[in-house]
Structures are given as C-alpha cells and as structure tokens.
Amino acid sequence: MNTENLNTAAAQFGLPLYVYHSEKIESQYNRLTQAFAKVPRFKIHYAVKALSNVSILKIIKNLGGGLDTVSIEEVQLGLYAGFAPSEIIYTPNGVSMEEIEQVAAMGVQINIDNLSILEQFGTKHPTIPVCIRINPHVMAGGNANISVGHIDSKFGISIHQLPHILRIVENTKMHINGIHMHTGSDILDVEVFLYAAEILFDTAKNFKELDFIDFGSGFKVPYKAGDIETDVEEFGKKLTKRFLAFEKEYGRELTLAFEPGKFLVSEAGYFLTKVNVVKQTTSTVFAGVDSGFNHLIRPMLYGAQHHIENISNPNGKERFYSVVGYICETDTFASNRRITEITEGDILCFKNAGAYCFSMASNYNSRVKPAEVIWHNGEAHLIRQRETFEDILKNQVIPSTIEEPVLV
C-alpha cells in the first residue's frame, strides 16, 4: 500500500479508518505454505480472533485455508463465510460444556485443554473425534500476556499430566485424532519452537490414531524498518525434516497444521487517524488524534509499537511527537516518536494494524467504532460500515419505571 492509496481511502470513507491490503495477506499465506512445501499434508488454520471480518475470512477461504476459532461465535462466523465444518478447529478456554457440545453438533473439530472437560466430553461423546491441547511448559513470546505455553499459563493440559490424559482416554474409549500446542506470540528463537515440537512428538507417540499434529503459531512479524522477525524459511526446513522423520516412525500419514493470525494479517493492516490538535507543553509536543485505545488498544495493553507516518507530509522535516488519543484517561500511542512535521488536520497512519486492533475495539467513552476497508484488485472496498450513535443505543432498554419519574 502506498501513501496515495491510503489518502484516497481516507478521502472516500472518512476517518478514523482501518484499511487492509489483500495482496499482503495472500503473500504471507503463500510464504508459509512454500516454507512447508515438502510436507504432503499441510494445513493453515487462520486464527479468527486476530481479525474476524467476514470478508477477511472469505479471502482466507479462497486461498485454501481453514480457521482456528476460540468461541462459538467465531465458529458461526466461519460457517457464515462458507467454510465447511471440517475446515474449522475450535479451541476454547474456560467455556461451558454446553458450548462445546453445541459446537461439536456442528461437526467442527473439537480441541480440549482441560482434564475435567476431557473426561466429561469423552464420557458423553466417546465417538466424536477430539484433539488435545498440551501445555509444553516452554516460555516463549514477546510479552507475558501473550506467552501461553509456560508452567503458570491457564492454557493447555500440562505435559506432566499426560498419565491422567491416558487414563481418561482408556476409561472413556474416546477417539483422539489430534495433538496441539501453542506456546505464545512473537517467537523469535526457532530452536525454542523446535524444542517444544519435540515434546509434542513424544506426546503423539501415546496416541495411535492421530490424523494431525497442530503446532499453533506465534511467528513474529517486523514492526518497523530493519526489525527482526521469525525466519519461517529456516523453521520450515528444520521442522519439515523432523516432521517427515516422525511420520515414518509413527507409521501413519499425518497433517502438519499451523494457526497463524498475526503473521497473516498484521502487516496487511493500516489505521488512519486525523490530527485534531498539536499541543506544545513545557516538555512535550502532543499530536492528539481522532481516536484512542477504544480503537487500537495494543500500545496501552501490551506496550506494542506501531510505526506511525504522517501521510499528509511524508517528506517533511522530522520532529519528536507524542501521539495521543481522545480517551479521557492516559491514552498514549507513542512517546517522543520521530515523525515528519505534523499540523492539525494531517492524517497519521499506524502500520501493522491488521491483527488484534479492530478485533479488540470497544465503545469506551461511548465512541463509535471505525469503518473497515479492504484494498483489493487495485480498489478500496467497504467491508464494515462506520458505527453510528444509533448503534450505541441499539440494544439498550429503558424500563418504564425509569422512563417517567415517580412523583411522591
């Protein structure tokens, strides 16, 4: 995406605005599939939670991918987008047995990460194939909130509880058709990932009728020029060799699966905002924009860095700015960041805004959510309308006793 295209989208659809570039999603998808081209049975399940717009899901479907879901609503979105139930894996955490059974009735692949639920489900539905999510106790990820494979994580069944898993499987005679792990996001060290993979291979030996092994995801993407990222090509070569060797040892053809979210959509996304005010204080120059952490929470929640460009003045002289939002509490996107000179009315572009940005947006401060646009085949297409004040009121109900005051 170039500056001209982004400015065109801003003029056409207004601000603030999310813009996604379909070609980048496709190139990332192809990059991963090519890294594992020597694996006969390879499957990508896109992590819906990263960006759940139905148009994005349809792009993934057209590329040949499946979906990784964590809620019944994400499953329903996938079915609505045209995915077959067999193309969807459902990996909830802490949900009710009732929800899991509802999803199972839809024909979706169930992935269980809790001993209690595993036993309950196996007792009631022993013929329904189930995948088991293992916690390998490997600390990996760029932030404590997105490291989910360590010993204190709520996710997965501890690898040390494998005897309990085997006892449940034996007692219920349930059918285990997959083994799964996810260690965290922003993983740089390929060797750490390969170490966790060995734990998964060792675990898989205990189950004789597996159809697939799911390695989750967590590949790091670059957030600025020259930033480091996961070398998926190197990882592809090393894991392919090890996976094919294990497949021969196992004596059965297996599917190698991944669940990328951020890797596929992060770099495809751009968030455009207008500068409402430039405010000079005794120590800082603030650029206040027409958005806040209600639209993009990652900098405040994770300390995430999003490269910011002034696309109204891309070739101007650089100055230092703190970019802040309009939410009525600390709401900082960037502190003392070098950006080309900003004036009120300029458009700032936040890069890497495709993953966990709109999908984590809220109506905090009773602000409406932005529109979403996809740049596809050389044109901008609206894929979500901007909310209105009527949307804020849509599901609110005023009891009659509150509508009219009671006079005493």
Number of helical regions = 13
**CATH domain class name of the largest domain:** Alpha Beta
- Largest pleated sheet: 9 strands, mixed
The CATH topology of the largest domain is given as TIM Barrel
Taking all residues together, what is the mean pLDDT?
Answer: 93
Distance between the termini: 65 Å
Measured as a percent range, the helix fraction is 25-40%
What is the number of strand segments?
A: 18
Class inferred from helices and paired strands: alpha/beta
Which regions are unreliable across 5 or more consecutive residues at pLDDT < 50?
A: 140-150
Percentage of residues in DSSP E strands: 15-25%
CATH homologous superfamily placement of the largest domain = Alanine racemase
CA radius of gyration: 23 Å
Number of domain modules: 2
Shape: globular
From the coordinates shown, what is the CATH architecture of the largest domain? Alpha-Beta Barrel
